[in-house]
Design goal:
about 375 residues, alpha/beta, TIM Barrel, 8-stranded parallel β-sheet, 3-stranded antiparallel β-sheet, globular
């Protein structure tokens, strides 16, 4: 196997591309969707489920694992892979987004961010070096730098100040984990909704020698048109030879739009959160399983899906479980939604190899329009 950090691009179709990223725990085929296992688990699923679904890489979260059970405990247990019994690659977010989402419970300084735990109100401090130390304890294959996620609507003066802080912190993170450790580090490009600042951020971040780069600060309240505009403007600023990651964006229409812009990696809580809310994804559109029309529907949720939920249970049964608030509802719904997203990305990779990605993108965006008015099955 190649050394961790090796990234080979195998096929292109326009800006869309397929590749292979080598990590210490295996090779990831891109473009890829990473199911979110915030606290060391993808809610309601076990690692065997994820393996059977074809999951290649999971996402964990520094903020949550630091607070509970604690990164030092995870290290004592042999690292996050051994602790949760997942043998594949793991990417850990730095926790910056969660900390900055605390709003009134945190205070930003040039040294880092002080915040109160959402669990018990205890006070903590994340410096760039602390975030790296936590992720070393977790033992993730890819760690993210500490950054400030600029709120939507921030003016240019604030965004420029934030950008300078993000660049400073990124340099400190890189110094705390030099290349060659086996753990990879991705830098995060910020700059809000100002294209010149996005370019500036990319130039500064990409000069620091990271193994990959991410676009942060999108899907924070802006319209789809605004997000796509910045996405297509900023993605070309990232080095072509390294993986490109669009953080926290995961609606089906957004995934194919991101791939069209050259993005290789995605994560989002959408499939798991919506599964628990009874919203399921199919290649004929969304299904709201709690609707009365499915009460006597003996057909599978999606006849074209080979996941455990679709090959064994009817819509009527899935509706019954949801209405009855049975735990099995969360499990079966999550199995299906994760299967849909991973299958979509597998189809994307194959379409790129065959030079028909544009047709697949049009099909997905017709079924899941970027304006949010999704079609429902007949």
């Amino acid at each position: 196997m190649n050394a961790p950090g090796t990234f080979h691009i195998e096929a292109r179709d326009g800006q869309a591309r397929t590749g292979r990223l080598t990590t210490a725990h295996g090779v990831v085929e891109t473009p890829i969707f990473m199911p979110v296992g915030t606290q060391g688990t993808v809610k309601s699923l076990c690692p065997r489920d994820l393996t059977e679904l074809g999951t290649q890489i999971l996402l964990g979260n520094t903020y949550h694992l630091y607070l509970r059970p604690g990164d030092e405990l995870v290290a004592k247990m042999g690292g996050l892979h051994r602790f949760m019994r997942w043998d594949g690659p793991i990417l850990t977010d730095s926790g910056g987004f969660q900390v900055f989402s605390l709003s009134g419970l945190r205070k930003i300084t040039s040294e880092g961010v002080e915040f109160q735990s959402h669990i018990d109100g205890s006070r903590h401090f994340f410096s760039p070096e602390k975030v790296v130390s936590i992720q070393k304890n977790l033992g993730s294959d890819i760690m993210m730098v500490l950054d400030e996620c600029v709120p939507f609507g921030a003016d240019k003066a604030y965004t420029e100040k934030s950008l300078a802080l993000t660049t400073k912190w990124a340099g400190q993170c890189r110094a705390a984990l030099p290349p060659g450790s086996g753990q990879l580090m991705f830098g995060i490009v910020q700059g809000g909704f100002f294209k010149d600042l996005r370019r500036q951020s990319a130039e500064e971040i990409c000069s620091l020698g990271f193994e990959g780069h991410a676009l942060g600060g999108l899907s924070v309240g802006e319209s789809r048109a605004e997000m796509y505009d910045i996405l297509h403007a900023a993605a070309p600023f990232l080095p072509d030879a390294k993986p490109k990651y669009l953080m926290g964006v995961g609606a089906p229409s957004d995934l194919v739009e991101g791939v069209a812009a050259g993005i290789d990696m995605f994560d989002c809580v959408l499939p798991t959160r919506n599964a628990r809310n009874g919203t399921l994804y199919t290649r004929k559109g969304k299904v709201n399983i709690k609707r009365a029309e499915y009460r006597e529907d003996d057909s599978p949720l999606d006849p074209d899906c080979d996941c455990y939920a679709c090959t064994n249970f009817s819509r009527a049964y899935l509706r019954h479980l949801y209405i009855a608030k049975e735990l099995l509802s969360y499990r079966l719904n999550t199995i299906h939604n994760i299967s849909f997203f991973l299958t979509l990305m597998r189809d994307v990779r194959e379409a790129i190899r065959q030079g028909r990605f544009a047709a697949l993108k049009a099909e997905i965006q017709a079924m899941y329009p970027p304006d949010g008015v999704d079609k429902r099955p007949e």
